[in-house]
Amino acid sequence: MMGDQRSHRILMVSDFFYPNFGGVESHIYYLSQCLLKLGHKVVVMTHAYGNRSGVRYMTGGLKVYYVPWKPFVMQNTLPTFYGTLPIVRTILIREKITLVHGHQAFSTLCHEALMHARTMGYKVVFTDHSLYGFADVGSIHMNKVLQFTLADVTEAICVSHTSKENTVLRSGLPPERVFVVPNAVDTAMFKPALNRLSTSEIIIVVVSRLVYRKGADLLVEVIPEVCRMFANVRFIIGGDGPKRVRLEEMREKHGLQDRVEMLGAVPHARVRSVLISGHIFLNSSLTEAFCIAILEAASCGLLTVSTRVGGVPEVLPDDMVVLAEPDPGDMVQAIKKAITILPKIDPQEMHNRMKKLYDWHDVARRTVIVYDYAVKSSDQNLLERLSRYLSCGSWAGKLFCLVMIIDFLLWYLLKLWQPDENIEVVPDFTLTCNQDQGPMHDTDEERKGLK
Fold first, then answer.
1. Mind listing the pLDDT tens digit for each residue in 394-406?
2. Sorted alphabetically, which PANTHER family does this protein's record hold (predicted)?
3. How far apart are CA 253 and CA 291, in angstroms?
């Protein structure tokens, strides 16, 4: 399984990928593209999205397996533990994969694929994109699932130092096995407007999922107060979610229909056009490991006002962002401060600085270093691995061991029923395509369903 350490063959796995849009989806796509350019082979595995099922090719020849499983809740597939073993094994052998890279602790497919890959002796890397608490019921259960997955993971990556601390505390993983590799932004896609906007009317842009975790309830209290204090301020809100109703009710209650524009869900290709129509970007998240949206806004030359949560203070230099506590009064004061320093902001200069600060090619090179560490790590037999699961708790450790023993037996039976040599290996090739096409490009080369 070691393979050539200078050229990795990577399977990226997550429930979250295009055509769904978000930070994790963008991270996997841009990282994969840069890894391909570095000479590594990258294949993505995710679940089906509507009629997007089977094998597709995207820009740069990126091959994506849309496994014909439908999402169960919040774009996640239904947990089956062992139902994904045959298809994961087939893809690993067909593509001659040497390393599996799972993304996002929320992803059911990620956890199951990493479990099966370790059973088959593959080296695995996990990237955590979110922060979690320790007290509520949901976080307690998620942390135990993460502890199970990371007990046998080869190396782990977090997108910020705050995220690393959070992951180490939640999983018990040794800190020396957790690397910090930040997100980045495609500065070629997110450019400032050609002509600088007039400040006679100040436009504050919000582009976010309208959910509790993203601080939609804070916006309900902040927006009316800012509109009361500044007659020349207008808001543009892009995004959709269960909290959209509250924002619309707020707009009706305070008579702000002409000052608060609700765009609904915004396709990723249109995010730049929304951003460059404003002066200030407002992020009201209650928890955030990194926040790619802030990078996109800064790359477009917008001054950012954000809550001081999670890894957000690590993202931008102090002169590019005004931080506030996740409190309506403090956020209003932060917006007031941002409006006063707005004339000093040069969008083009900010964009040029972002080009130097964040680059996906740099992220890819740093990720390859983690892959090198993972591939060089020593192999462990089943008994050695089970001892790591036993350390997860008096009851949970025994349960985790039982899960892994059953997975090992099923894999062994699967090999007897269909030996590895009976699985067809696909030839390697690079798909020639127009590099100007967006991430949603795919071809008719291979649209057949998975067997």
1. 888 888 899 989 9
2. N-ACETYLGLUCOSAMINYL-PHOSPHATIDYLINOSITOL BIOSYNTHETIC PROTEIN, PHOSPHATIDYLINOSITOL N-ACETYLGLUCOSAMINYLTRANSFERASE SUBUNIT A
3. 31
What is the distance between the alpha carbons of residues 431 and 443, in angstroms, rounded to a whole number? Answer: 10
Q: In what order do the strands lie in the sheet with 62-67?
A: 54-58, 62-67, 41-47, 9-13, 99-103, 123-128, 155-158, 178-180
Neighbours of 444 (CB within 10 A): 7
Q: Which three-class secondary structure state does DSSP give residue 54?
A: strand
| Structure token pair of residue 297 | 């806004």
Q: Which fold has domain 9-184+361-422?
A: Rossmann fold (3.40.50)
The arithmetic mean of pLDDT across residues 29-50, rounded, is: 94
Residue spans per domain, the chain:
9-184+361-422, 202-357
* pLDDT, mean of residues 192-220: 92
Q: Give the pLDDT score at 436.
A: 45
User: pLDDT tens digits, residue range 98-109?
Assistant: 999 999 888 899
Q: Identify the burial level of 405 via C-beta atoms within 10 angstroms of its C-beta, where 0-12 means exposed, 13-18 middle and 19 or more buried.
A: middle
Confidence (pTM):
0.84
> What is the residue-wise DSSP string for 315-362?
TS-GGGEEEE-SSHHHHHHHHHHHHHHGGG--HHHHHHHHHHH--HHH
First to last CA, the chain: 24
